[in-house]
């Protein structure tokens, strides 16, 4: 069984403490799509200094605070993706302009009308770019120990600014993974 067998839409890829690639150091990636050809996700914990309003004025007032565009990953950073967490009881099949990812989390068509969707969601987040892996690439990185694959929660995509999502996700896994959350940002200072 491949080591990325537990990867599916809605799971999280948590950067292992030893992953020092500047694009992914201490990141949490939300998996949007995973199939034979590859995997696509967005980094949940990298807000930028750019306001959504400056790039997508119609969506700006509706996104979850800090109302910034998040750096979704190093691939196609001029492409915007939007994730929403639907309110309890909302049926994806009744909503236009959304594609279900996992549970109440959906990918939003940013060409759609925000006024139609906003009352039906708990929150929205916009990402510039994404993280992508080709066929077998993620499995090799998981095997190497670069990523820890854990279940995601719908509210992970809306984590408030200032929350250490990387540490919080690790801590909620219990022992021994919770111990990784105590690692200093720079292990040389330990």
Topology:
Layout: E1 11-15, E2 28-35, E3 38-43, E4 47-51, H1 52-55, E5 68-71, E6 75-86, E7 98-102, E8 105-108, H2 114-117, E9 121-134, H3 137-144, E10 147-151, H4 165-171, H5 177-180
Parallel strand pairs: 5-9
Antiparallel strand pairs: 1-2, 1-10, 2-3, 3-9, 4-5, 6-8, 6-9, 7-8
Uncertain stretches: none
SSE order, one letter for each helix or strand: EEEEHEEEEHEHEHH
Mean pLDDT: 89
Class by SSE composition: mainly beta
- The number of distinct helices, counting runs of at least 4 residues, comes to 5
Provide the CATH topology.
VC0467-like
- What is the alpha-carbon Rg in Å? 16 Å
CATH architecture title: 3-Layer(aba) Sandwich
Please identify which CATH superfamily we are dealing with.
Answer: VC0467-like
Oligomer: single chain
Major sheet, described briefly?
A: 10 strands, mixed
Cα-to-Cα separation, first versus last residue: 37 Å
Task: Give a short overview.
This protein is mainly β and 190 residues long. It has helices spanning 52-55, 114-117, 137-144, 165-171, 177-180; strands spanning 11-15, 28-35, 38-43, 47-51, 68-71, 75-86, 98-102, 105-108, 121-134, 147-151.
